[in-house]
Amino acid sequence: MHREVAAALREEASAVDERRLVVLSGNEAGRFEAATEVLDAAGIDLDAVSLVSNEPGMRCEHVEPARAGDLLGTTREAVVVDCHDACRPNVIGRVVGTVTGGGLLVLLVPDLDTWADRRDGFDETLAVPPDTIEDVTGRFRGRVVETLRNHPGIAILDLDRDRVLRDGQTDPPPSHTAPALEFPSETVFPRAAYEACLTQDQVDALAALEALRAGPTATVLEADRGRGKSSAAGLAAGSLALEGDDVLVTAPGYRNAAAVMNRAVELLDSVDGLAGPAAAEPRSMTTTAGGSVRFSAPTAVADAVDTARSAVALEEGSGFETPDVLIVDEAAALPVRLLERFLAVERVVFATTVHGYEGTGRGFAVRFRGYLDEAPHEVADVTMTEPIRYAAGDPVEVWAFRALLLDARPATADLVSEARASQVTYRELTSDALRADENLLREVFGLLVTAHYRTEPDDLARLLDAPNLSVRALLHDGHVVSVALLAREGGLDDATRTAVYEGERIRGNMLPDVLMSQLRDEDAGEPVGLRVMRIATHHEVRSRGLGSRLLREIREEFASAVDWLGVGFGATPELVDFWQDNGYGTIHLATTRNETSGEYSVLLLDPTSERGEELHETHSRWFAARIIDVLSDALRDMDPDVVRAALAACDERSPLHLGDREWRLVTAASFGPALYSVDPAPFRELAMHYFTRGPDLGLTAREERLLVEKLLQLRPWDAVAADLEYVSTAEAMRSLGAALQPLVEEFGPLTALEEADRYRT
């Protein structure tokens, strides 16, 4: 019976170029054999199948769930996802778009009737100490089961009872013949490139990519998965190489960029443009015109570009030639810091997925566009909407978007445009309320997705099931205008605190974990806190004080129930200032960059009890005492504006203990002939005292950056002069003295002022 269902489903899918989903429910022991039988009945060769599972249970490609991202950019006739050990939303989101039209997505799941009540490996990640896995709920899987039972194009086969619960048939109308493609009347790229396009979207995207023939140009190519953006980029790469350009392609892994490389080599081969034979897995190719298309890993590209840029600045050879064109595929999956470094190339393409494997892949859109807007490149935006791997309206895509909220959006602008901080309603949004109200859930998750680059499908499950999370929001006429996702942390018992202090990791307790393990404060895990994991305000009503209103309401509600409120994020000056304005003080700067944001993270606390005050005062004092040495070492390359903001937000004043001799030196170097290099220590101490809660002395932003880069980060004079655009190192040195003069006059004793008077006349 199951074979007949699979064969009919495959036949229907192939007839209309759509995919179908097959759910094999129950019978954990025989699930792989059942999947193999279904695929055999559907006429799908196992060589065209990928199994995503912890177990290599089928004679096909096996991909560990942790490496599901390796399938991005690939095309498979079927993908089998094993959900028995764990149902990981991110895994489903990553692989669903790889199945081609006429293919099958197969889910191996426990009995649907009891699945939501079972706890699995993913649930363990939601059990944040002191909670246990028994405290995790099954609302997300209940949602998945509901969508599987109700959406079209989904067959459900009960393996335990040998029953067909749904056959998945949709009886679609016959597919219509696609209209003929319209090519531009005048093109520069070869006609063969346009003839290789499969949709009008691809034709239009290829025409837009012709702008890459001159720079500085940056093209942002956005599309939902399966729209052919990688193929369009590959056709452009081949076309540019035919003109003699060196085109470098990068992506999270070669497999993600395989479509770009394959389409490039196919085009070059079709026009006899290859200088040599094509490899089965092309990583580099040369054209008869002297151009090339080659792949390199992202970090290697960034390091090489940095080296080349530094060599140019120093007028030395680097041994690396910057490519004429750089194509970055799956840009949203790369750290923003890497993307920013790629802008050293004059002609660059960023191809990114709008919906899919990263929730909605907003890392690129949220954080990177700021860098892009400040770059000298002329930016062109190209959007592709026509599916290529499968027909429009494909039921599997519709199901995935619904089940994982991949297309979640905030309320439309017209519904919230009149919202004001004094006219909104503060509300707790329980998991039950969100599960019961689809529109409310979509507005909350859509707002988090739009505002935060890290929001992904796993976060939807956390939102609904994690016992340590809660949601608070501001509503205007029933619509969400600002939302905060809160995580309870701390309250850890003696044994847990000891284990963390001695090197064990702990889930979900970000701030206590850092304070206990990195900063060696074993008792920091005892106070109970509430960390603001995410906070987002609707773009239509930003800068109206809504975020601050939400934080005030949260503090008022929880101040008597917790010891502290806290936050950690990839630091930018604007964000640090926002949190400082709302009463949060800096206690730590991470010494490694966040993998996704590319920024150094900052931790801030707002104490709400006596225990919280003690914790905050201790770590503020430690931070003020130790950060000067960290800035000259691990944080030497931190943005000086972030340093300025983070130090200003510290509630502990860095001490100033200069003796008469040190004051004479600092004063004479500021007003007279003395040299900073004789003894930098007192200069650094004075700068730290100024930046931590110092008064406004009228220094310009450039002067403050000079103090940070030279005195706190100890950067070389030539690097400081170049970064701050001084005409020479001598001018930078003179400017340092001038910038120090107000500090001497404000903080110096009488002996320092008398010393300064010697040089005023």
Quaternary structure state of the chains depicted: single chain
3D shape:
globular
For the largest beta-sheet, the strand count, sense and barrel status come to: 7 strands, mixed
Q: Quick one: how many beta strands? A: 21
Rg over C-alpha atoms, rounded to the nearest angstrom? 29 Å
Strand content: 15-25%
Give the full name of the CATH homologous superfamily of the largest domain.
Gcn5-related N-acetyltransferase (GNAT)
Biggest sheet strand line-up = 3-2-4-5-1-6-7
Estimate the mean pLDDT confidence: 91
Explain what you see.
This protein is of the alpha/beta class. The protein folds into four domains: 2-167, Rossmann fold (3-Layer(aba) Sandwich), CATH 3.40.50; 191-384, Rossmann fold (3-Layer(aba) Sandwich); 413-648, Gcn5-related N-acetyltransferase (GNAT) (Aminopeptidase), CATH 3.40.630; 660-757, no CATH class. The chain has 29 helices and 21 strands. The strands form three sheets. A seven-stranded mixed sheet has the order 3-2-4-5-1-6-7, sandwiched between helices. Strand 18, helix 20 and strand 19 form a beta-alpha-beta unit. Helix 1 packs across helix 2 (31-41), helix 8 packs across helix 9 (254-270) and helix 24 packs parallel to helix 29 (750-757). The longest helix is centred in the last third of the chain and has 22 residues, at 610-631. The protein is globular, with a radius of gyration of 29 Å.
